[in-house]
Amino acid sequence: MMMTMDWKKLQNGSDIRGVALEGVPGEQVNLTDEVARILGLSFVEWLRRKGAQGELRIAIGTDCRLSGSSLSLAFANGARKAGATVVNCGLASTPAMFMTTVDKELNVAASVMVTASHLPFNRNGLKFFTPKGGLDKGDIATLLDIAEQGAYHQADAVGGYETADFMTRYARHLEDYIRQGVGAAATAEPLKDMHIVVDAGNGDGGFFEQILRNLGADTEGSQFLEPDGRFPNHIPNPEDKKAMQAVCQAVVNSHADLGIIFDTDVDRSAIVDAAGDPINRNALIALIAAVILREHPGSTVVTDSVTSDGLTAFIESRGGKHHRFKRGYKNVINEGIRLNHEGEECWLAIETSGHAALRENYFLDDGAYLVAKLLVDAAKLKAQGKQLQDLIADLRQPVESAEIRLKLTEKDFKAQGARVLADMKDKMAAVPGWSLVSPNYEGIRVSCGNADEQGWLLLRMSLHDPVMPLNIESNVKGGVEVIKGKLHTLGLL
Fold first, then answer.
1. Per-residue confidence at 187, pLDDT binned at 50, 70, 90?
2. Looking at 392, 409, 432, which one is the last position of a domain?
3. Given 164, 198, 223, which residue is the final one in a domain?
4. How does pLDDT run across 25-75, given as a tens digit for each residue?
5. Same domain, 157 and 185
6. pTM value?
7. Which among 4, 27, 360, 465 is least surrounded, fewest beta carbons within 10 Å?
8. Number of domains into which the chain is organized
9. Same domain, residue pair 337 and 416
10. What is the pLDDT of residue 65?
C-alpha cells in the first residue's frame, strides 16, 4: 500500500487533508492510521532538521470527527517511535493547540491538530504548529517528501506519553480576557445583562457556551453544543447558508442580543445581531476593524482579494489602510506579519471566510478569541444602550453581488487559467469606463465605473481546483447583469 501512496495528494496548502473514512462513493481512503504513523515519524524528523535538540515534546489534539481518535493515536505512536514524548490534549480547538506551543507549563516544541475544519464527515487532516506559528506550504511539502522517501529515523527507546486538559486552561484564558477587557473583577459576571446564543454545529466550539455562562450571560436557545463527528444538524461552517440560517433563527426564537457560530475546529467564527441578521464576511471584517482602529489608529488591515470597495471606504474613514492580498488564510496572515517586519504597522489580518488573526494574539486565527474581543465591546455598548452593529452603521454594502465559478477543462489547468487571465487583462482594460485596479496581488481586479455598473469584478485562479472564480459586485440595481453582459461580449461567459 505504501509503495503506491501518492503523498503529494495529501497537501492542501499549509495543511494535510485526505479521505479518512469509507462511505462516500468515488472517494478512496488515503489518510489511514499507517499514513498518520509515518507522518508522526516524519514530523519529528522535520523538527530535528529545523534544529530541535534534546528531548522533544509534541502536543496533539483532535476535533470531534469519527476518525480523529484513531489517527491521533497512530500519529502519536509514530512520533514516539522517533523518540518524542507526546502530550495528548484530547478534544481541542485548533487555536488552543497552537497555544500549547507558547505555554511554559506544557513546555512542548510543537503541536499537531487532527482536523479537516468544515469538510464532510469522511475527511480528516492535520495542522502543525511551532511557537513561530503554523507550518507554511513549503514546510508541508518537505514533511511529505520525508514521508515519501522514508527519510525518518527511529529512536533506540520509545518516547513517553502524557495527557493534559489544556482546553480548560485555554477557556479560562478567554474568560479572564473578557473580564479584564470590561474592567470587571476576577469573579464578576460582566455579561449578566446579555442573552447570547451559541451554535457549535456539533463541532468543538460548545465549550464557549460555558464561558458565557461563567460570565453571567443567559445562553438559553444555544444549540448543537455536543460534539458529534457525523454533524447531524448542519455543517459547522459560518459560510454555509444552512448553518447561518440555523443560528439566525435561534437568535430570533430566543429574543437574544447576539448569536455566535463557529466552524468545526474553532479557528473561524461569525456573529448574528439581535434582529437575526448575520454579521459575516465584509461586515465582520468591518466590525473588528472598527475596534482595532480605535485601539491602534492608522493600522493597516490586511484582507483577502474578494472584499468590497465599501469596506475599503469604511476602513479609510476610520484612519486605517486597507491592504487587499491573495485568498488563503495563511497568505493573509503571512502578509500581515511581513508588513510589520517591514515597518508598516498591521494589527489585523482577516479573510472573508472568518479567519481573523490579531497581532496582539500571536497572529493566530482564533475564532473564539475574535468573539471574546467583540464581546468586550458588546458589553460596554450594552451599558450605553447600544449594540455591536451600531459600530458598522455606515458600512456601505453592495446592492448586488455574484460569484461564478468557471471550470477549466485542460489537463494543465493552471496553464489554461494563466492564458485566460493574460487574454482577459488586455480586453477588460479596453472596455470604456473600466480600469484595472493596482496594486492587485491576485488575478485581475477591474473597477467598473459606468453609471449602470458602479462596481467591480475580480477574476482569479482557485487556490487548488481547476476553477476560475469570478466575483462581481455593483452598487446599482441591475449592475451585475450589465457587467456580465460585457464579459459575455469579451468571450469570458
1. confident
2. 392
3. 164
4. 999 999 999 999 999 999 999 999 999 988 899 999 999 999 999 999 999
5. no
6. 0.95
7. 4
8. 3
9. no
10. 97
Tell me what pLDDT residue 304 has.
97
Section 182-202 average pLDDT: 95
Pairwise CA distance, residues 299 & 157, whole Å: 51
Which range marks the domain in which residue 451 is found?
400-489
Domain at 446, CATH number? 3.30.310.50
The strand pairing partners of 373, in sequence order, are none
Nearest alpha-carbon partner for 463 in 359, 364, 365, 351:
351
pLDDT, residue 477, reads 98
Q: Residue 186: its pLDDT value, please?
A: 84
User: At residue 2, does pLDDT exceed 60?
Assistant: no
Q: How far apart, in whole angstroms, are the C-alpha atoms of residue 75 and residue 60?
A: 9
Are the C-beta atoms of residues 480 and 493 closer than 8 Å to each other? no
| CA 155 to mean position of chain CA atoms | 36
**CATH number of the domain enclosing 30:** 3.40.120.10
Indicate if 317 and 466 belong to the same structural domain.
no
pLDDT band at 1, cuts 50/70/90?
A: very low
